[in-house]
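To: structure desk
From: M.T.
Subject: fold request, one chain
Message: Could you run this one when you get a chance? Sequence is below, nothing fancy, just the single chain.
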Amino acid sequence: MRKLSYLLLFTYLFLSGCSSDEDLSNLKANGGAVYGGTFRFKSSEKISTLLPVSSSSIYTQRVASQLFETLLTLDPESEKIIPGLAESYSVNNDATLFTFKIRKGVFFHEDECFEGETKELTANDVKNTLDFACSKTVNNEVYWMLINVIKGAKKNYEKSQKGKISKGVSGIKVVNKNTLTIELEYPFVGFDKLLVHRSLGVFPKEAYDKYGSEIGKHPVGTGPFMLDEWEDEKISLKRNSNYWKKDEFGNKLPFISGIDVTYAKDKKNELISFRNREIDLVLQIPAEEIDNVIGSLEDAQAGKNVKHKIDSKASLSTAYYGFATSTVPFNDINIRKAFNLAINRESLINNWMQGDGYPCLNGFVPEMGDYNDKKVNGHLFDVLKAKEMLAKAGYPNGKGFPKISLYVNTKEGSIVHKLATGVLKQIKENLNIDIPILLCSIEERDKAILDGRAKIWRGGWIADYPDPENFLNLFYSKNIGYNSAISNPFKYKSISFDNTFEMAMKEANPIKRMTYFQQCDQQIIDEAVIMPLYHSDFMTMINNRVKNFHTNSSEIIDCSRIFIREKK
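Reply: Done. Structure tokens follow.
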């Protein structure tokens, strides 16, 4: 009897340690899955908000996407659009009117904004979220995606900018409790892809009414997890026991009890935490750190290494350096071209990143779906021509070039820092220009871009959906007036680019549409608006105790279906 008591006590302590507050011991899963356990990983950037429309960085979106859901989503394997909070949708013949059937039986997280209760999702909640996304508020960073697309969105933005009360976007209409229509300013066949954007996760108006500008610290969504605790060095999520989705075996999702997110000082710190079994996942494994991951032969023979799997997917991402094209010195196209011609991208990848990436030898947009990036001619490495361009701009051999710094959001010694060192070494050797590196956070970099201090900075873009529009919208001049550090922070203006981009947006023929996008991509290269550097793979390492883990090209992790099976 005493042995049984000890066994029951041990079982209770084990389950308590593997879950947040919920006891999952009575839940049985079909298909080999099990309930319980906490999934742990580290973020390399601090998270300051979990409101979707404020979540502009991939680090924030990885966490926020566990709490919030969008109307439509992408299948991680096929990358095709599938239903999300909308169970179905239809489009009229000229792609100007989209009708969505909102899923029934979906509930928001229990929260004080509902007096500790919950409420069912309706079409009104979706409209309120999209109205918010089309307004000028301190929390909203995605207005630029929608206000030139949805009918009445720009008027809604302008009214809110002036502090006036608006009834919302006229083109977004609630037909009934579970039906919503969105009317566009012009035909846009790719509008459904835009609605999978993670920053358009649906949240209730009640939450904003209660928390106001602090809503980012009080996330209320419909996702598989909800906020448990938020400390300075840790964010803990717990299982949403009222989540609506089930897997193919009829199991109620999610399986795990919670998620713990902590912060990595650097990549080595993250790898050590993995080897010490303190975390279950390592994101973006640099080639130079592989030995730290695998460990020694002696460790392997002694069984000390963590059993793990490594997964790799081609990422829809581009790393680049951005130019402030409207101010000195990069308002001169000759200087921008000189910088692009002066660097050997293949050498940089091989020597400074140990082959961890693919040099941008074509356009800014990576290859995806029907988009062939090989039809875009990239920058060639040509030192002689680079020097001629610099002299043409009035700075022969770099003489008299203004003092500027390269803003790089990373930690010292990281692969990103090493690449920046390599780029600036080539700039010094080939153009005789000294540019120091200024290490900073994402927030510090964005502030420097907005106030004009940053003339050149490290940037990166990961597609939220597999379409060139998601990349090329960054250069659309109609987004400049909104002073965003995300969309067209380069202040690039071109009537010809805008016209071609708009034709691509309206074009229904997929072949013609991609041709227009290739023309836009080529113009970005020809006018050297940025310095494209490399595309990469999304490589992850996962502890073998975590099952059913999959990566995707947008570098988001979906924790709703993973489960943890401890070795007996």
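Reply (cont.): The two ends are 24 Å apart (CA to CA). Let me know if you need anything else for the meeting.
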